[in-house]
Design a protein that fits this description.
Length: about 425
């Protein structure tokens, strides 16, 4: 059979990391590309990333990288092979922005500047002669009925239509809506028949109704073990710090655990965090240690012991919960009373009521169902010529640079695949 070929005009919807990389790669592959961004500038969320330092990727091996996205991570094998973490580092290094590996595997620009990361990306996109439309919100995907490649362009909020052979949706999730990520892409995808897996806050802080929370605001308990207890049973644990806020708890380890918490709360379960303030001990071994410590305390009272052993704002909260007779001398404390105190040290419970609102989350969990997207190309399995990349898909990584790498890798693959010539029989 004889085939005719042409390079398609491509529209990328959304100028975050995924959209910028998709536009760059498609243009590099000789496609004509228009990048449509709703706000006045590209990459607003990227500028916030890593507290303005931009934790761009991670040195983790492929297996670990994929595992950072849980069950859905295997969807990423192809994208991470086509554009790996090392390729991403090379992308920036070769453009004059060297990267630094931290001991925990996180990769940052050497100058700790998200602004520089955005600068390099922007220059690459402009250098690849991508046409950029700012302040232009896409409101619809225009499709032709009854053709092999139904996508024919996008409609904009001002009523205009831009024609294209292919469209890449890279509109991100719906956290931090001021950055432009307001979840528009979900409606665009649904309009094309796609399923959106229910959305929830990802890598989020957690709210608690414990009365003591406000007294602890600003306190950080360091180097502890935080366990998620669902209906009294341990489901997951992380070693690190916890930060108390006016509403509940936060900190990188809490964010990592938040997915399990959100799922458990959605299922109507009772969720608590259990803090082991002495992670080198189990409950039983710590009680033995405390028995010895109390015996050698001389005239010290329990209240004095707790003041010495715990941070200043935490000691009174702990005392109220776990020490029935704080004025009693440690050496005179009975075993039941001491066991209650030692349990407080190794299993301090915090009742969790809900996650913070999705607008404040780091990422959005849920999104376009992966079974409807071809992982080899990022093309929709439902609508030929329609592609997805980045956070809009049902992929949620842990903290550590995984989410930005996902955005860059899937963006690269979507751009490259969309730029591939459409091959159709000559007789149509
Ligand atoms: C505070 C914070 C810190 C973070 N830090 C890190 C970090 O250090 N490391 C890490 O790996 N991840 C981090 N993340 C997550 C990471 O920033 C996101 O996963 C990533 O930005 C997703 O990229 P994206 O391109 O898919 O979407 P986004 O970055 O959300 O970009 C989507 C773009 O689409 C545009 N858009 C939306 N709707 C439309 C429309 N209708 N028409 C046209 N344009 C539209 C938006 O304006 C936006 O510019 C952080 C997130 C937050 C909120």
């Amino acid at each position: 059979m004889v085939f005719k070929q042409w390079h398609a005009g491509i529209i990328v919807v959304g100028g975050g990391p995924a959209g910028m990389m998709a536009a760059f790669r498609a243009a590099q592959c000789n496609a004509g590309v228009t990048l449509v961004e709703k706000t006045y500038r590209l990459g607003s969320k990227l500028l916030l990333s890593g507290g303005g330092r931009c934790n761009i990727t991670n040195t983790a091996a492929m297996k670990e990288f994929v595992a950072a996205f849980g069950e859905n991570g295997k969807f990423l094998y192809r994208a991470l092979s086509v554009f790996s973490p090392q390729d991403l580092v090379d992308f920036f290094t070769s453009r004059g922005l060297p990267m630094r590996n931290d001991s925990d595997g996180k990769v940052f620009p050497e100058n700790d500047s998200a602004e520089s990361v955005l600068g390099v990306l922007r220059t690459a996109v402009e250098g690849a002669t991508v046409r950029i439309l700012h302040n232009s919100a896409v409101t619809g995907i225009v499709c032709r009925q009854g053709t092999d490649v139904p996508v024919s362009g996008v409609s904009l909020a001002d009523g205009s239509v831009i024609a294209a052979e292919k469209v890449i949706i890279a509109t991100g999730g719906m956290s931090y809506p001021k950055t432009g990520s307001t979840g528009d892409g979900y409606a665009l995808a649904q309009q094309c028949g796609h399923t959106v897996v229910p959305l929830s806050a990802g890598l989020t802080a957690l709210e608690s109704d414990e009365k003591f929370i406000k007294e602890l605001q600003g306190l950080s308990l360091k180097d502890i073990v935080i366990s998620v207890m669902v209906n009294g049973k341990i489901k997951a644990a992380e070693h690190g710090d916890i930060l108390f806020t006016h509403f509940g708890v936060s900190g990188p380890r809490v964010l990592v655990l938040s997915g399990i918490v959100v799922d458990a709360l959605t299922g109507g379960n009772i969720v608590e965090l259990s803090l082991n303030l002495r992670p080198e001990y189990s409950g039983e071994t710590f009680d033995r240690y405390l028995q010895y410590a109390f015996e050698s305390c001389g005239p010290k009272t329990i209240a004095q012991y707790l003041r010495d052993a715990l941070p200043a704002s935490f000691a009174p909260v702990f005392q109220q919960r776990y020490a029935g007779a704080p004025a009693k001398k440690c050496s005179e404390t009975g075993s039941a009373e001491r066991k209650k105190i030692s349990a407080g040290f190794t299993d301090f419970r915090i009742h969790i009521t809900q996650p913070r609102p999705i607008e404040e989350a780091t990422i959005t969990r849920g999104g376009i169902a992966l079974k409807e997207i071809n992982p080899q190309t990022m093309e929709s399995r439902l609508v030929k010529g329609l592609f997805f990349c980045g956070e809009i898909m049902d992929l949620a990584g842990i903290t550590g640079g995984y989410n930005l790498q996902e955005a860059f890798s899937t963006g690269f693959l979507a751009g490259e695949s969309a730029a591939a010539p459409i091959v159709v029989p000559a007789d149509i």
